[in-house]
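lol so apparently i was supposed to do this last week
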Amino acid sequence: MKIFVYHTPELTPTDTVPECAIAVDVLRATSTMATVLAAGGEAVQVFSDLNQLMEVSEKWPPEKRLRAGERGGAKVAGFELGNSPLDCTPELVAGKRLFISTTNGTRALQRIQNAPIVLAAALINRAAVVKFLLEQQPETVWIVGSGWEGSYSLEDTVCAGAIAHSICQQTNCSLAEIGGNDETISAIALYSQWQNDLLGLLHQASHGQRLLRLECLEDLKYCSQTDTLDILPIQQEPGVL
Ligand code: 3SL
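anyway here it is w/ (2R)-3-sulfolactic acid bound
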């Protein structure tokens, strides 16, 4: 298995697709998606465009849908939810489809949606993603960070490193064997350095600081945990996990 890390959706090659592509948005879209599915949500359907989200979700029975959206970290007016995983309780989401649009995370998922296998990963469901990769043994894996409006984000890179690091450890392979590109090796190095203080790293990250200004410390704490949810968000049809 060769793992290629791309720091933003824009950096992914456009002339090829890997056997398996993984979108990461630790703060907070993929953490929220994993939480919704672990809490019994029927599915998560992603949109980059809010008008399209409204149009598609209108056709869904109101008692079986929730609309979630964030722009600049704040909830979209008129939606039931923003993008905080902490709001996604089983009482609220069980049996419902979450129609969600976020600034960067949903864009990353849409960018990779043509790969044969598409997953959403965060630190909280890292072990479930690693288990799946070890079972399926795809030859080529892309881990795509959502970043922030086209630029690098620490939290997505550390999650990519956490996935690659765990695969290396469990298969006893070398960095050269697993690393499809230099980004993978640097992501593993970042994770190795910070694995015992991931919350500390999220505090350093620019988007972590943005969320702290929005009083979302509890979200940072929640999203910095590793392997707490045994859930594999896997694409069923384009844009639906
Ligand atoms: O950019 C995104 O997709 C979001 O996850 C950002 S936020 O954490 O909800 O502000």
